[in-house]
Design brief:
Blueprint (H helix, E strand, L loop, with lengths): L2 E11 L2 H11 L3 E6 L2 E5 L9 E5 L3 E9 L4 H12 L3 E4 L10 E5 L5 E5 L28 E9 L2 H10 L4 E7 L8 E7 L7 E5 L5 E7 L3 H13 L4 E7 L5 E7 L5 E7 L10 E4 L3 H5 L9 H4 L3
Parallel strand pairs: 1-4, 5-8, 9-12, 10-17, 13-16
Antiparallel strand pairs: 1-5, 2-3, 3-4, 6-7, 7-8, 9-13, 10-11, 11-12, 14-15, 15-16
Keywords: Aromatic hydrocarbons catabolism, Dioxygenase, Metal-binding, Oxidoreductase, Repeat
Protein name: Catechol 2,3-dioxygenase
Pfam families: Diox-like_N (PF22247), Glyoxalase (PF00903)
Length: about 300
């Protein structure tokens, strides 16, 4: 019984045409379907129907979808979630486009989350038989896959406890005010399989998102991404840098509506008995930007 990965993210944007140009031409995502005021997109190395849906009408996150390993996992997690005190509703086939039956619920941070097992398979840009290393016609950054997200909450311990007790996630890293027994939990980075983190929480207004991340292959890809972002006059909030926390190579930037995202490379692999790494608040500059040890105000004050 397991949650496997972040499968999709549905967000709002202020202008659909501007957003489409950004996600297709700058990030290099592929349009799967345009439907009214919505566009469904995927990255070139993703198998499922879509990983991002953009909808005109504001900013911020609408909902997130996490894929489970087996159909019977839905009933297993339904019991765990309800036992925690969170109500669930059953999703019917197609209620979320391309997605099979699932569970929908509001997590303690105020975000809507869906669990599902089946999603329509639409192949990758390189296929499954003798595939090339990458498509020849990649545009812009050419992001391969959706990786993780960082959400805001007014109760980090409760959000962390829910993902541990109800969904079997584990904390890879935590940020605390100090190492005393009553030290405050300031952030938690949780994994469900082998990533440094599949979801994370920091302090802020419930229901808000700090960023979501796309996984690139290495520092050269991060450097290339930075060049593309500059060519396209994209607003960059932080980086290029290396996080002490997660050891990830990173750039944070904003879409035309102001939603923040990240390109992320490196990091380390986790496993079931991975011990939690702890960072203290006095080392926050190294945790965020290990090389420069500089903190940008927008990194802590801007969310959608």
């Amino acid at each position: 019984m397991s949650v496997m990965r972040l499968g999709y993210l549905h967000i709002r944007v202020t202008n659909l045409a501007d957003a489409k140009r950004f996600y297709v031409d700058t990030l290099g995502m592929q349009v799967v379907l345009e439907q009214g005021n919505k566009i469904y997109l995927k990255c070139w190395d993703e198998w499922d129907h879509h990983s991002l849906m953009i909808e005109e009408g504001g900013v911020g996150v609408i909902k997130l979808g996490y894929k489970v390993a087996k159909p019977e996992d839905l009933a297993y997690f339904e019991k765990r979630i309800e036992a925690f005190g969170v109500s669930t509703t059953r999703m019917s086939v197609g209620e979320t486009l391309g997605v099979g039956e699932g569970l929908r619920f509001i997590i303690p941070s105020g975000h809507t989350l869906e669990l599902y097992h089946h999603m329509e398979f639409t192949d990758t840009a390189v296929g499954l038989i003798n595939p090339p290393l990458f498509p020849r016609n990649l545009a812009g950054v050419g992001v391969p896959r959706l990786d993780h997200c960082l959400l805001k909450t007014d109760n980090i311990p409760l959000a962390e406890r829910f993902f541990i007790e109800a969904l079997d996630f584990k904390p890879a890293e935590r940020l605390v005010s100090d190492l005393s027994s009553d030290g405050e939990l300031l952030g938690t980075w949780l994994f469900c399989q082998h990533k440094t983190h599949d979801i994370a929480f920091v302090a802020g207004e419930k229901g808000r998102i700090h960023h979501w991340g796309y996984k690139l292959e290495g520092w050269d890809a991060i450097r290339h991404a930075g060049s593309i972002l500059s060519m396209d006059d994209v607003s960059v909030g932080y980086g290029p840098e290396i996080h002490g926390l997660s050891r990830g190579e990173t750039i944070y930037f904003f879409d035309p509506a102001g939603n923040r995202m990240e390109v992320f490379a490196g990091g380390y692999e986790t496993y079931p008995d991975f011990p939690t790494i702890t960072w203290t608040a006095d080392q926050l500059p190294r945790a965020v930007g290990y090389i420069s040890r500089e903190l940008k105000e927008n990194h802590f004050t801007v969310d959608t």
